[in-house]
Design brief:
The chain is an alpha+beta fold and 210 residues long. The protein contains 7 helices and 5 strands, in the order ααβααββββααα. The protein folds into 2 domains: 6-43 and 137-200, no CATH class; 48-133, 2-Layer Sandwich (TATA-Binding Protein), CATH 3.30.310. Strand 2 and strand 3 (103-110) form a beta hairpin. 12% of the residues are buried. The chain crosses the membrane at residues 16-38, 151-175, 182-202.
Length: 210
């Protein structure tokens, strides 16, 4: 077993504990507040806004579509590119095509909302229905990583790893302090046992099944 330099271990742990806490200051508060919000979803009843935009389909896209009315799916990439540039919409969930009416409909899920775009290539009109959430609704979905994109997913994963390191370095620092070590261990044990006991005795669960 390799020799562990306790002084270096404690010094490194203390530095990591301090700087991880500062790096995570905002996210820790954000996830704590959003966790409370998710525990009280009734707070979000009136935290939605609906809107609608009507606009003319760009001439270039309209001409291209009208020359290919029977093969509209071939211009899906151009339609998506236009919505991404004009309205910042990315990561379409689904695209539907009503051939008879020359309609193309795109569904975009968003944190705490959605955007639904309908291109009418006969009338040349774009109808964009959308719903946006207020601050509480948005942070609730960011907490869950719901429709928040790949980059935010990495934010959640990296934050979780750093929080684990934060907890571990805190325990290492505790063991350095002999006077407070025993009390800290008892408080840690209480912190582990309390949620387990609450889960076993007060959280609804099914029993008697294999």
């Amino acid at each position: 077993m390799p020799f562990v330099n306790k002084r270096a271990l404690y010094s490194t742990s203390r530095a990591l504990h301090i700087y991880i806490s500062t790096a995570l200051f905002f996210l820790l508060i954000l996830f704590c507040v959003s966790g409370i919000v998710l525990n009280h979803v009734d707070w979000l009843k009136n935290d939605k806004n609906n809107g609608q935009i009507t606009a003319a389909i760009p001439a270039e896209l309209l001409v291209k579509a009208q020359t290919e009315l029977n093969t509209l799916p071939t211009i899906y990439p151009q339609i998506e590119a236009y919505l991404a540039k004009q309205y910042g919409l990315n990561k379409v969930k689904s695209i539907e095509w009503e051939k008879q009416d020359s309609l193309v409909m795109l569904d975009y899920p968003l944190p705490a909302g959605y955007a639904y775009a309908e291109f009418d290539f006969i009338s040349g009109e774009l109808l964009l229905d959308y719903q946006t959430g207020g601050f509480l609704s948005v942070i609730g979905d960011l907490h869950k990583g719901r429709y928040s994109g790949e980059v935010w997913s990495w934010v959640i994963d990296i934050s979780a790893v750093l929080m684990i390191l934060f907890a571990i370095t805190g325990m290492i620092i505790l063991f350095q302090n002999r006077k407070k070590r025993l009390a800290g261990i008892w408080i840690t044990a209480l912190g582990v046992a309390t949620p387990i006991v609450i889960y076993l005795f007060w959280v609804p669960q099914i029993k008697g099944v294999s």
